[in-house]
Each structure stands twice: as structure tokens, then as C-alpha cells.
Here is the input.
Amino acid sequence: MEPKKNPKADLSRNSGLYFAIGLAVVLFLTWQALEWKKYDKDEAFTYKMNVDDELDEEIPITEMLKTPPPPPPPPPATPEVIEVVEDDEEIEETVIESTETNQEEQVAEVEEIAEVEEPVDVDVPFAVIEDVPVFPGCEDAKDKRACFQEMMQKHIRKHFRYPEIAQEMGVQGRVAVMFTIDKDGSITNVRMRGPDKNLEKEAARIIDQLPKMTPGKQRGRPVRVPFSIPITFRLQ
Here is the structure.
């Protein structure tokens, strides 16, 4: 007895191909199911592709504003009431005097008052004064400034005397002496600054013996002239 099954029909021969096709179909359907989206009708957009319809829209015509009419002219002013005066009544006339001067009137001349300049009491330093104070003996010198300083050095050397107390104590140093040549040529406002009071006292004694000088002048006026000079005390 012959078998009914065809020996050539082997179903298991293409089973791998069928499995792959079925798997691909399943994956495709799954992907479509995941990508499926549903939109509401409210969110739908309507596009109008007919351009002619848009151009046919009627544009409202806006009327131009009319300029308001000018305001009416103001009413005429009420005329003032004119009072009628009888001829018998007397009316006082107001006399207006002229403020213009008459040519015949004499004009008083105002004399010019000369301003009197008061002398200004200022101190002009020795280095910038125009006319330096003149030391006695420098009246005929060409350079009175250099002559003044030279005569000051001679005066200090002539009257210099070292204090005995300072010698015993071994005190020495420089004393800065400052004084003012007043407007009358006298020596005033003498000040000293040094390392010892005995040296300062000796420096003051030397300055007190300065002679009276011709005062210095600024713009032709006598002024006070401050001057300073150092006196050195040195033991030998």
C-alpha cells in the first residue's frame, strides 16, 4: 500500500522563512499601533488655499474726521454809560507836571573825589622785596642786597662771644635767628631756636646790637622785612 503523503512536500523545510516573515509583520503592526495618534476636532487647523477669496474681502471705509467749526465770536462789549454833566457844574482839571528838565535849569557839577589809598601793613620777604633795607655803610653800594648780607656777617663776627657756661658744659650747635626790620628801620620781633638756652641768649644779644637801618620799600612804600640768619657755636 502506497503512502498518501508526498515525500517531496516537506513543510519544515521553509519554516524559518515563514517565521521571519511573521515576526516582521507583527513588529510592523506593533510599531503602527504605537505611532497612532488621535487629534481632537478643536485642535484641527483649517487652511484656506484660495487666494482670490482672501483678496475679495471688503475693507471698511473709515470716514475722515471733519474739522470742528470755529467758535462763535464773543459778544460785543457793553458800552460804558456816559454821564451827562450840565454846563453849570465846574469840573476840576488834573494838572500833570512834566518831569523833563528845562534847558535853562543849571546842572550842578559833581567834583570827583580822589580815592585815598591806605597803606597796607604787610611783610615782604627779603628775597623778593624790590628795595632791600640798607645796612649802614651800604648806601653807595651797587648791590645793596649782597652788601647787606656781608655787613651782617661782619657784625656777628665782631660781637660774637661764646658763653662760658656753654663752654664748660661742652654745648655747641647752630642757632637760627629770625627778626623783622620794621618800617622805621628798627629791629623787632626777634626769635631764636637752638640746642641750648645760653646759646639762644647770646644770639639775641648780638642781634640787639644791630644798628638802625634804612627800611625796605615795596612799590615806593616802606614795609616790614623779615630776615633770618644762622649763628653757629662751635668749640675748638
